[in-house]
Design brief:
The chain is mainly α. About 50% of the residues lie in helices and about 5% in strands. It has helices spanning about 10-30, 50-60, 70, 80-90, 100-105, and strands at about 40-45, 65-70. A two-stranded parallel ribbon has the order 1-2.
Length: about 120
């Protein structure tokens, strides 16, 4: 970027715009067209705390509203911990924790193993 006369700020702005465009393009490709504001885009993670990225994304995906995960559910920082706790719960209960249609697994499987201490 610097060799072309750009600055670090230009590089960050370009990466931010590319991220918003990539997300919007994926939505267009993989989801039905929005019919109104009832179809929302829920965001979380570090990018959800970047006001420039959120604004670029909101502009690009209109009329879908862009809403932070934290406002609708719980603290987004806890998502991964909650997901692993749920998978552990399924394992303790002897229930499958995979989705064969999504993963290509041959069938439902209990994930993990419980080893008494």
């Amino acid at each position: 970027m610097r060799q072309a006369g750009g600055s670090d700020n230009d590089a960050v702005a370009t990466a931010t715009a590319l991220t918003a465009e990539t997300i919007a393009s994926a939505l267009e490709r993989w989801t039905p067209p929005p019919t109104g504001p009832e179809i929302e885009l829920v965001i979380s993670g570090g990018g959800a705390r970047n006001p420039v990225l959120v604004e670029l994304l909101a502009t690009r995906v209109r009329p879908r509203p862009v809403l932070p995960f934290d406002r609708l559910f719980f603290d987004g920082e806890a998502k991964e911990a909650l997901a692993f706790a749920f998978l552990g719960f399924l394992t303790v209960c002897g229930k499958p924790g995979n989705l064969p249609a999504a993963t290509g697994a041959r069938g439902p499987r209990v994930l993990g193993h419980i080893t008494p201490a």
